[in-house]
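To illustrate the input format used throughout this study, we show a single complete record. The first block contains the structure-token representation of the backbone; no residue identities are included at this stage. The design step must infer an amino acid for every position from geometry alone.
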């Protein structure tokens, strides 16, 4: 599932390509991905422009010239591609937004959605999200941790704690900090908390600069999207040698989630 770095990469790359471009046509093959009828969706979009793009946690917000907001959550398996019909990947597309010859394809939205809301509705829908992990300081991070009692892994993926971190970066942050994701939050001392905070800040920034871990390119010639995938220290590397010590990376299941760590480098 795309997390904060992946959605931030999409926001930055798409902002350079579709802002203030007029939507000339809309195609919907999966109406369930919408919260309104496909006809009404097309009526709201055709002739309209996306004037601003914003990211909130794992959501993208496309602000329209008319004041409405497209709220996107890709969920598991969702991704996007921008290009011409000839360039389109050979994948099933649920929604297409046409910008003249170019199109924005929404792919794999079996669980994801692209909904139309007013700005007030968006605020109401997202108000339970926790703060952005790159927008808080150490004192705020420490205070938020005091409210939690579970494992570090489960705490990090809780979107009411911090918004935007999921399975991949929770494990990557813990490895960077040298702390087991299976530890209870209550076991952390001041030094542990500092290391987790610093690892979170550094690693998320690194992942954004490297385009996140989503391997599918956003457009033909895209050399940024997915470049963090080869930099993953532990995530999806079960049995591979740890980059620090050479011992095998371990995979377990923690609260029904995949969890990766090095038992030698993390404690």
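Output of the design step:
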């Amino acid at each position: 599932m795309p997390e904060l770095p992946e959605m931030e990469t999409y926001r930055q790359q798409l902002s350079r390509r579709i802002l203030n471009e007029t939507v000339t046509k809309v195609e919907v093959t999966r109406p369930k991905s919408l919260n309104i009828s496909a006809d009404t969706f097309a009526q709201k979009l055709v002739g309209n422009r996306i004037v601003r793009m914003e990211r909130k946690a794992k959501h993208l917000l496309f602000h329209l010239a008319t004041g409405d907001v497209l709220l996107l959550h890709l969920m598991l398996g969702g991704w996007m591609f921008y290009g011409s019909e000839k360039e389109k990947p050979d994948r099933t597309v649920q929604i297409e937004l046409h910008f003249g010859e170019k199109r924005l394809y929404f792919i794999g939205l079996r669980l994801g959605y692209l909904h139309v809301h007013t700005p007030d509705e968006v605020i109401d829908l997202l108000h339970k999200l926790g703060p952005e992990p790159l927008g808080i300081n150490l004192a705020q991070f420490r205070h938020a941790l005091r409210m939690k009692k579970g494992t570090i892994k489960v705490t990090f993926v809780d979107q009411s704690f911090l918004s935007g971190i999921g399975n991949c970066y929770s494990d990557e942050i813990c490895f960077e900090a040298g702390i087991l994701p299976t530890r209870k939050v209550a076991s952390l001392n001041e030094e542990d908390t500092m290391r987790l905070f610093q690892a979170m800040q550094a690693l998320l920034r690194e992942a954004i600069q490297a385009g996140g871990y989503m391997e599918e390119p956003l457009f033909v010639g895209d050399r940024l999207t997915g470049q963090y995938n080869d930099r993953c220290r532990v995530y999806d590397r079960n049995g591979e040698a740890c980059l620090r010590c050479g011992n095998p990376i371990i995979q377990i299941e923690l609260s029904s989630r995949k969890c990766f760590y090095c038992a030698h480098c993390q404690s």
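Structural context for interpreting the output: Residues 9 and 36 are 28 Å apart (CA to CA). The chain has two domains: 4-126, 133-261.
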